[in-house]
Queue: 2 jobs
Job 1
Amino acid sequence: MNSADFPELSSALTAVRQAAAVCRSVQASMDPAALEKKDKSPVTVADFAAQALICRQLQFDFPEDRVIGEEGANDLRTAEGATFLKQIHAECEAVGVACSKDEVCAWIDRGNLQEYRPRFWTLDPIDGTKGFLRKDQYAISLALIVDGKIVLGILGCPNLPVNSAEPDGSRGVLAWAMAGAGSWMVPLDDSGTSPVKLHTTGTAETADARFCESVESGHSSHDWSGQIASSLGISRDPFRIDSQCKYLAVARGDADIYLRLPTRKGYQEKIWDHAGGVILVEEAGGCVTDIHGVPAEFTHGRTLAANEGMVVTNGQFHTRVVDAVGRHAPTA
Ligand code: AMP
Ligand code: MG
């Protein structure tokens, strides 16, 4: 597989690498005292700077394209936002992008598309902000959607061990998938090595499975997943990890199942929390639907309005897992 055949891939990989560099630099300089005070400003700065840099690259290479992202620049243009804007601008310049503050705001606003288009990108510049603040796992997620189908997905995971068997080894993974061309990964810091093709596990019995879920019980119900695990005979502890690193965990075989179970009726999942990860798992041989077995629909603008929660498996026992999710659904 060759990125020269698909210029979107090389452009997006460059953009995600640059955003990862900013995230790492902000995280490295984070003051532990600020964390204790639950100060979220470091993640705000990194989040906006990453969105600015990715939208800048996409604007340069694909000027017609717009991006459905989480952030807009309106607040940065206010008096209260000025300090943030100054820091965001400084982070962009620190990775070699000479620019004005107005340009930074304009790039961020390119990522503020609200409605569906036949061709658009979706971006989560820092997925897993709580993991970022804990100096744990987070992901930069970017995907290209054409006619409602994800054609390209990229996850940059700056803190993820390159080899899951060596949790204390080198960290930083860049993974991508293109429709019909498989899922791949390289170490984030090394653009020279040959990409490794990703495959989901061959685990055939749910009793042997390991499942992953959010660290935050407010994002996915731990009570419900516990009941599902019991009914599927799963005895291994859940693998709790922030962000779309969960999709990568299933795609590369660190886990067999990822459950995202609504904590309340009416929550609509955001497309940027899923698109990059969904194609990564599907192209690695896995299966992704919502909790009702319905495929994710990326045609409703910013949210997965036609779906509820998400069930991700290695592809071996998807229906059994969806059935168990339904059997244990809370009655309320
Ligand atoms: P995770 O790291 O898997 O816990 O997911 C982080 C994402 O959860 C964030 O990007 C939010 O968009 C999303 N999120 C926020 N509130 C909720 C909620 N109530 N249910 C599901 N996801 C949520
Ligand atoms: Mg997110």
Job 2
Amino acid sequence: MALLELRRVSKDWEVGSESKTTILKDISLKVEEGDFLAVLGPSGSGKSTLLRIIAGLIPPTEGEVLYHGRPVEGVAPGVAMIFQNFALFPWLTVLENVELGLDREELTAAEKRERALQVIDMVGLDGFETAFPKELSGGMRQRVGFGRALVAEPDVLLMDEPFSALDVLTAENLRRDLLELWLEKKIRTKAIILVTHSIEEAVYLANRVVVLSRDPAQVVTDVRLTLPYWREKQSPAFLAVVDQLYATITRRTPAEAAPAAAGRPLSRVPEVRSGALTGLLELLDDLETRIDLYKLADNLMLDVEDFLPIVEGAELLGLVKVEHGDIELTDVGRRFAEASVLERKEIFRELVLKKVPTMEKMLWVLQSKRNKQIPREFFLQIFERRFGPDEAAKQLDILIDWGRYAELFGYDEQGGRLYLEGDEHPRA
Ligand code: ADP
Ligand code: MG
């Protein structure tokens, strides 16, 4: 029997009062004892939502979570969670913060103290028992987070991007320590689910990787990683796995690739500004050849979450081609990279109008107004119904950035208005 099982879990979030978006759709997953499962997916795809459903912090809209074969209601027993932002209580000491992890256990105060002290030792916080969070570095704070999660000896440890708020070296150090606890069975935890946006982190730590799509999130890949531990990040075998995962993540699902879906008004655009797009194209032009995405990301010192939207944006506009985890300029991409500033804008304008129907609609609305201007708020409201408040503003900002760069319209930041100038270019 699976330790943990998700059966056709779906989650809708209400957007405004009448509409809703489906964030997770039909996610089925069995987590077995011994799994160190990394969940990869684009930002905003629903990874945290999924983890919170598994923890029993929020209910799914449909489907169920089984734990040892039984459905769970409310907070799941035997499950503990570690958060990105540590989530410590500033007025409690390290020891008291760790003891909080035993809230649900029937133990005497003395037993709690003993267990907490042991765990503090184990996670490398010996000597800091009476310190307050503000006296600690980020890495030490996250160790408290680990301690609080591990003190109850959970069967399943859930981790939501636990290393992403830490600097590179601290994160590396903590990853090693976690892996040691796990591999040498110093903790009783039977399975770990790690949400991450770093492919390299997933390949370093996990023995199984699940990749989620977005809008809505579905499992698109579920693979075992059989590379023996400890893994060498620079070894060809390691890089081959990273490369393969890049290929998987950048491969369009059939639905996404279908022209009907991509060409729909109000479909999501990748969150990348024109400046970053231009930068990517110039770099590719300098390289003069196709290159592995993971190498390019590495050269730019970006991780997937920051890097993929740039690639996706360029791909959406037809400026690059991505295949098998490699990227190269298309003909028009090369023409763009080598063009003058003005020619670039012209190429960009043509591509944006062709590939981004929302832009065409925005322009149409602007042109139909007698005074040739429209408050940003107008579009924001429409976008909110489709994307929800946070995402709507981001999406609109990107489109405004693209539209301005293409000189399709102007934007007055202060007044928050989009406008057409007299000699603004007519629709293509
Ligand atoms: P990830 O962790 O993959 O970045 P999240 O699970 O945090 O993604 O969020 C997925 C989507 O659900 C986002 O579009 C986010 O805005 C939305 N969302 C998250 N929490 C809520 C909520 N409580 N109410 C409405 N929408 C939410
Ligand atoms: Mg998240």
